[in-house]
Amino acid sequence: MTNETIEITIINLMLGLLLVIIPAVILTKYKTGLTKPLLIATARMVIQLFCVGIYLNYLFEWNNIWINILWLLIMTGVCAIDMLNRINRTLKTLFIPVFISILLSLIFVAFYFLQVVLVLDNIFDSRYFIPVCGILLGNILSTNVIGLNAFYSQIKREQQFYNYLLCNGATTSEATRPFVSKAIIKSFNPGIASMAVMGLISLPGTLIGQIMGGSEPYLAIRYQIMIMVIIMSSGILSLLLSLHLSIRRSFDGFGRLNKG
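The structure corresponding to this sequence follows.
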């Protein structure tokens, strides 16, 4: 088995991007209104990933602990802002709780993986620290958006049931518990279903990328197993923390949901 990675040249990449024509034509034919968003999203993805490649080269070259920590804090802040924008909650109300929730779950899971599982001499080594934190942040964003959206929409939709619980002596924490449970279920059902068929029906992109990059299949599989575990762990931990900390800021002393 060769360990050489086949290079994708700029010309080959351009030829590959022509495949976007297929969904674009279908979306146009059925008048979905998604053709323009698809093309914009594709262009943004290409530009953003090339920019990421440039600054990652510098981060790997510097491999400085303080620069890596600064990168982590900035990315956590960006993740929190994007998350709150997607669930239509004000930054003033929930930015700090969400930021703390993301950071704590990220630090705990990433540090455990890098120190206990990989046993790195330097857990801030850019080549490991940044990719691991990056993949966790991406998953935390998606799971929290789904979970928080589900929580607040259910609270508004089932306002009578929520008020019934409060009127029967439940505290805000007790009255919101059923909605927290439903939010967690909605957020993690797809991930659990995907994990259950992984390797049987689907092969994840990370695994394929490692194998195509020259890694031995058994090594790539071990990494993929751990990546799925840390993704699920950081996702549910951050969502639970976000829900509990945001409840403290989103409800007044009488258990009423604030407008922001």
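The chain has ten helices and no strands.
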